[in-house]
Amino acid sequence: MGDTNTKLFLKICVKEVQAGNRAHTHFTKEGWKNVVSKFVVRTGLSYNYKQLKNKRNSLKKEFSVWAKLVEHQTGLGWDFVKRTVLASDDWWERKGQENPEYLKWRNGGPKFLDMIEICFKDVVATGYMVLLPFAELFTDNEEANQNVFSQMNEVEVDTDNFDDDGDSPEQDTSREENSTTHNKKRQRMSRRERKKKCK
């Protein structure tokens, strides 16, 4: 997945986090359904749940390494040019000895860090230091967003494997069916009662 679609994917994920569709560390079934539907509509690409879940896990893993780099650190700044941690050469050398993977961010931090932080800082980090000044994440015009939401209903999403919330699809479906059946029974009863009153 290229940078353009990764950025779009993260925007969608942030929206679902802010909408409360993340239970603990994972999206709920409804959250994943929304993520897949919106991504398909916005990109025209036929990505499925497993592919997008793998992408999310990859981004979470990358953020986890970044979080360990900066956690519990004091006196660090932000390099607006390189868009990474502003620290001394000695600091970077020490960190490189701890984990050589840290050095990949010496000349540039993780892409889309502002959105990645929203998605994962409460999931993988305990002593995480937020260094990046937040910018406005969503600049899409409202008309475009409305088009997306109107098209979402037209996208068929296979939810059989959306099990990250701990509830199996069969359990969710049965609850919905039972609720629907119960509502229909109540509607029939109310119609009968109205007819009796009319008589």
Question: What order do the helices and strands come in, and which of them pair?
Answer:
Layout: H1 3-18, E1 22-23, E2 26-27, H2 29-43, H3 49-70, E3 77-79, E4 84-86, H4 89-98, H5 113-124, H6 142-152, H7 169-198
Antiparallel strand pairs: 1-2, 3-4
Can you characterise this structure?
The protein has 199 residues and is mainly alpha-helical. It has two domains: 3-167, no CATH class; 168-199. The protein has seven helices and four strands, in the order H-E-E-H-H-E-E-H-H-H-H. It has helices at 3-18, 29-43, 49-70, 89-98, 113-124, 142-152, 169-198; strands at 22-23, 26-27, 77-79, 84-86. Helix 1 (3-18) runs antiparallel to helix 2 (29-43) and helix 2 (29-43) crosses helix 6 (142-152). The protein is elongated, with a radius of gyration of 23 Å. The N and C termini lie far apart (67 Å). It comes from Dioscorea zingiberensis. Residues 182-199 have a biased composition (Basic residues).
Any key phrases for this structure?
199 residues, mainly alpha, 2 domains, two-stranded antiparallel sheet, 7 helices, 4 strands, 58% helix
